[in-house]
Amino acid sequence: MPSLRIVLSPNCSLTVRGALIFFASLGALTLGIGAAFSALGLWPILLIGLGEMLALGWALHESLKRRFQAQILTITESDVSVELRDRRACRRIVFKRHWAQIKLTHPASRLHPTRLTIESHGRACELGGFLTEEERRGLALRLRRLVGRVNESPPLALGHG
User: φ, ψ for residue 2 (rounded to 5)?
Assistant: First the structure.
């Protein structure tokens, strides 16, 4: 049975090595300045620098965790399955293609992004939360063409990649 697979993953250009080099160089600079001020009797500046480095380390750690995230959509003549992966788990949600709906919900505020979901029979799965607005809108259009509306299952056009 023919199928089409779409793999979504966040853009994570920062490597672990790059993050370590960045953290070490900024840490050396921050702690060096803090030590200089401590020598002048202004020791709270060193504590503030340490706090900043802890916050930066946490932010880099959270950013690097995103490299393990992926959403794999597999569309067949009968089903649309969404595989949600991260470092710890992998879960799969299957929707009947004939009943699935692709929805792009606009937020109440322009400051928030749209939400792209696939829904059917009271179940919903958000797709591409890490994509840019333009990428999310493009994916919504592509999925609507592939999945169709409720009670409509257009033939799969496998040549569109």
Answer: -70, 145
